Fold this sequence. Notes:
The structure holds 2 protein chains of 2 kinds. Chain A is α+β, with helices and mostly antiparallel strands. In chain A, 41% of the residues lie in helices and 10% in strands. Among the domains of chain A are: 15-94, Phosphorylase Kinase, domain 1; 99-274, Transferase(Phosphotransferase) domain 1 (Transferase(Phosphotransferase), domain 1, Orthogonal Bundle), CATH 1.10.510.10; 497-514 and 539-571, no CATH class. The longest helix of chain A has 22 residues, at 496-517. The N and C termini of chain A lie far apart (78 Å). By secondary structure, chain B is mostly helical.
Amino acid sequence: xxxxxxxxxxxxxxxxxxxxxxxxxxxxxxxxxxxxxxxxxxxxxxxxxxxxxxxxxxxxxxxxxxxxxxxxxxxxxxxxxxxxxxxxxxxxxxxxxxxxxxxxxxxxxxxxxxxxxxxxxxxxxxxxxxxxxxxxxxxxxxxxxxxxxxxxxxxxxxxxxxxxxxxxxxxxxxxxxxxxxxxxxxxxxxxxxxxxxxxxxxxxxxxxxxxxxxxxxxxxxxxxxxxxxxxxxxxxxxxxxxxxxxxxxxxxxxxxxxxxxxxxxxxxxxxxxxxxxxxxxxxxxxxxxxxxxxxxxxxxxxxxxxxxxxxxxxxxxxxxxxxxxxxxxxxxxxxxxxxxxxxxxxxxxxxxxxxxxxxxxxxxxxxxxxxxxxxxxxxxxxxxxxxxxxxxxxxxxxxxxxxxxxxxxxxxxxxxxxxxxxxxxxxxxxxxxxxxxxxxxxxxxxxxxxxxxxxxxxxxxxxxxxxxxxxxxxxxxxxxxxxxxxxxxxxxxxxxxxxxxxxxxxxxxxxxxxxxxxxxxxxxxxxxxxxxxxxxxxxxxxxxxxxxxxxxxxxxxxxxxxxxxxxxxxxxxxxxxxxxxxxxxxxxxxxxxxxxxxxxxxxxxxxxxxxxxxxxxxxxxxxxxxxxxxxxxxxxxxxxxxxxxxxxxxxxxx
Amino acid sequence: xxxxxxxxxxxxxxxxxxxxxxxxxxxxxxxxxxxxxxxxxxxxxxxxxxxxxxxxxxxxxxxxxxxxxxxxxxxxxxxxxxxxxxxxxxxxxxxxxxxxxxxxxxxxxxxxxxxxxxxxxxxxxxxxxxxxxxxxxxxxxxxxxxxxxxxxxxxxxxxxxxxxxxxxxxxxxxxxxxxxxxxxxxxxxxxxxxxxxxxxxxxxxxxxxxxxxxxxxxxxxxxxxxxxxxxxxxxxxxxxxxxxxxxxxxxxxxxxxxxxxxxxxxxxxxxxxxxxxxxxxxxxxxxxxxxxxxxxxxxxxxxxxxxxxxxxxxxxxxxxxxxxxxxxxxx
Lengths: 654, 331
């Protein structure tokens, strides 16, 4: 690594080797400082991590350092060294004065020309990383830093991965929800192409100010990304054909269809990009914006924290949560921009460090100072006062004390138009957040890998409570779905209508809606492979809302559920308008739409156009042999047939 | 200087031959310019060898290519040369060296691991790799090679049984964070990967090992202390190390040390110490000197443990703590 700072200085007390100039950011991990190397006068960024506040295996923090120190690219932030002082880790990094792209987006979105330049530089960085067998896994505007003269650099390797060969894949669930590739969320095994997806999302973020799906709760997004159609730029918004095509090359749901960094460097959109010096205007614009915005004046720059790899999400993020679950395996989960680490399955030995596990009983808690103990000290514990036995080695030369004002100021700086999400987020997870973490609701959360485990795992308890975590891969992580698991709940005694309502909901309505959602109800893997179902995210989420409504109703008041369903059926039967519409369709089309689970075998029977009662009854006879509907209750089909019969009564022409 | 014309390697095996020649020349020349040109050629050869081994795209590296390269490597001593000269190579060449080394290590013919067998007969390669920790420029590269070697028991055994193993503390204590952590991780790997082999060693070299290890635990460096205390807990609680554990928890000085750590200012240190301390208390056959210390501190320990890390949600920890309290109460 081409460090201009002599490695000999590494063993010098860093507080002597560097002069801290100004604090650039604060986060749950600690602080980031702009500092000067005394011997060379070089300006650097120093991230200070409070190791004592992390109960993680300390060596995991080293992974980021190992990645950075293996990179020698002008498109990747430089790492100069790391030291431990007291219980604090100092990581010395390249200082980039321009800011992160997410900072630079605050005054407004970028032009296509600017996006093209940034994407080209990013692709150069990704090409380097990918040829090294590295996956960044957290590409997003917040992790892209600009120098004062417009150079673009990739930062934050906190969750990067190293592949051992061309063929190897990763399975760990990690990244930042809005930017995560579908295959990463599915944990289906992924490689460097996951970064290309995130690059596409980032390009849209730079064009629009937000990543796609930003209106949804991040927990929902994890579900929607694999299910919904890949995002595209709105054709009516006047984007160039090249940019639209570039986005569609990046955002292919199947990684096999996705372009590589090398391919994309040849893309017309990229080839026409101008020099990076053009990006200086973004830096200038942001500096002017900061000056104008009074709320910003006490936060000189948040970017350093990003560059230093820890991020200052403490000051900006509402959710800032990196929560950890511990069911039977390690799950790390973060929300809204916060990188997520889930390791539901340790599928390959090539997988991430998380599997290396701490002993099950080793959750550790925040403390304060390291101390020096002596084997020779007294045996008896005299009065339990620590003074006789420990020396504190604490006290950094500069104790970060100004964090309060800084947090407060950035909290105020909301970005217009973002509040919807923030409100949702605040409402849904209010108790989860710590006050420090509440920010403007826009800037993305940075990976807190290894930092602040305690707060995170506490925060995660909220999610455990909802029971939704395990369902991330199949039904979506939101609590919305969880109530659908009503069979597990104790039931009060129900009358006939109540029982019917319950059965209707569980056997029919939820089944139908699951089919619509493309979920094989039990087969998780299949759920993701169903490629025929590919609706817009908004449609997918609407179906989920309906499903949740029915599931809740079926649990809360099955009798009412029964009445609602029957009233709908009755409404269909008695409405001439409906019949007029239905008459215009072929039976197959109607069946297909309303009852996908049954449609295939009706079609197979050939009589789909005009299913007579006889044919349908024949079908019922064959039901048990039909894999597709094996799990279906006979009652469900019976009700369905009855419904058809009811329609036929009003529809003698068929 | 006429290397350029002569080194047009025809195949990957030829690249290895050529590589060996160039590495030898690196030491022979004193001219900075020719050193640079030799280094460029070394980088090129390493890069092309790496690519040949990686195979084209997703295809498996042809077994042929691997076999040719491997045989040439075994014949030419290139593994050792790569390790010893790692610090002289260019940045990318160091990484390529690691890659080639580790690819060869994983080479398998049926159940045989030819490269592992080769290095087993060349213990100096393992020890030379360890020595690279003293050079910060290459410590993380060599650390990757060492880590890969330690996956294989014969190689881990070479390191553990060597006196050089006892240089680990020096690398852990005198390096910057990144290197120190890497060295610690490899020491841990040596001590935990191949349990029966390690247990035999620790049994036979108990005093020597723990004299070294206790110094790590007492390190003034917070990271070293915390990591080594945690590893101590893991080592002692491993079933394979039962004999070692019983010896460890019979020593008065060890108990005292842990009791002091329980009251360390760092909560993480306290917590790690708890996981060692609990073994002393849980021992059904406590030696008299251990029982006596515990009895002497009975009241204080009871008060202390009742207040110890009560904010933890960890069920197992709380159970263990209750168990300890009950045990101490009975004393």
